[in-house]
């Protein structure tokens, strides 16, 4: 069944039908489409456009269609043009002529705009829940590793010592921003386009705000042309998903590096690893690598959607049908990656001794040695130069700063005393850093306590 055709005298070419049809992917909308139709019919009756008997008959039919699709008793017919035509045809076959009144006062343009908003709104919530799962896992790991020392890096070279809790806190912040962006998007896009018609509203006395309220929207959209042509919220969602994937990819890159024999900071659980078909010793971080790879797939959806929209005049254009497959795939990919990543993270084991040993190398305490001299009255720039020469001396000698004898320190500055060893110990380097956002125990515990409050409100 087509929802149009009276103006046409010839059948549409089969290839055109196949190319034009969207049922193969927009059938995902069946719940949203039926939910929107029930709200629409309820409003039509309230406004005296349908009788109560017609309303009740249509709603009963729609509810039976929804129940049958959910149970598997009814299969969506892929020969239909789209989910809207399938639902209306099935409704008419069940309730008779009054089923043909379902579409009164609306167009497929505002109908699909509604379906896409309802679907996107649901997926924003689900994606947010996936992020919350990762945040909870990170919080647990951080609580357990406030004294797990490891090197911090810049340029992939050891920089200063910190803790695993502090390192993971950086990713906690990233995913918390992701959650916040989704919340902002939900609030911004939560307005109902139904009642905009094809582009110019309708002469029927529709109550758009009533429909919006029935469907849980903040209100109705304000311009009928924008209502049917707006896909900004889709672009925003794809952008948010791309940033989420970027954060996952960065995290996965570190997991891949930490999993190497050169680092051995972590051990991935067998349930989240694979082996080699030829090398029996291999235990590969395939999940982390696949997440890293699938990031480009989500980026592609964002760029594709921007490209689809960039030259479209007002109002609705068929190009917009391209939004669905792109968005569906990006959502599935991002949610799947978040779920798998969280499982991998939960099962991961940390080699604390190896991390601490690594933190002792690479002169990660050089900055603290310079700060030691500053506290002795030496200007920082001079202290920086002294420690730089000390590091070069140690490199040539093949030792660490901690290995030097007191007399060797004094060769570079008389300000050095035996208290230098405590000043540059691994524990001191970390525990004395307690400014807001730092890795010291006071700072990190304040941070974790605040996270508990934040998580309780998500």
Q: How would you summarize what this structure contains?
A:
The chain is mainly alpha-helical and 458 residues long. The protein contains 19 helices and 6 strands.
Summary tags:
458 residues; Fumarase C, Chain B, domain 1; mainly alpha; Fumarase C, Chain A, domain 2; Ribonucleotide Reductase Protein R1, domain 1
Describe the structure.
This protein is mainly alpha-helical and 458 residues long. The protein folds into 3 domains: 14-104, Orthogonal Bundle (Fumarase C, Chain B, domain 1), CATH 1.10.275; 115-146 and 158-196 and 225-357, Fumarase/aspartase (Central domain) (Fumarase C, Chain A, domain 2, Up-down Bundle), CATH 1.20.200.10; 360-457, Fumarase/aspartase (C-terminal domain) (Ribonucleotide Reductase Protein R1, domain 1, Orthogonal Bundle). Helix content is 62%, strand content 5%. The strands form 3 sheets. It has a two-stranded antiparallel sheet with strand order 1-2.
